[in-house]
Amino acid sequence: MSIHLLTRKQFIPISLEQAWPFFSTPRNLEAITPGFLNFRITSAVPEEIYSGLIITYQISAVAGVPMTWVTEIKHVVPLHRFVDEQRIGPFRFWFHEHRFEAVPGGIEMTDIVHYVMPWSWLGELVHAVFIRRRLNAIFDFRHDYIANLWPS
Q: 26: closest CA among 40, 14, 16?
């Protein structure tokens, strides 16, 4: 079993107080997710995340086949960090930490994702051929969306 790590950092020229309402609003996840996933939230969601919040999604991750993804929001420290953990979905394990840190002129946003593929060696092959690129494309889209929303 391989535990994969994806880390992304992005400077955003706004304050923590400006960033937190956007990133802690579950509905904004739809805007920062690329269209090729056909992503939509299927559960009722509040205006702001809280620890213990369960969110269900419909995605088409592979070949347009719809699937359910369920995450739980954990470890919320307002203005600074939160974690989403997969409860049901395409990975054997998914732990995504979102960090926000004040830096000169704005904030540094860091995404740290630890994940494990299902299906043993076959999952690792699918990861090498397809999933790693797909995850990078998702986070590239998010980076570009946020850079356009708050240009430097």
A: 40
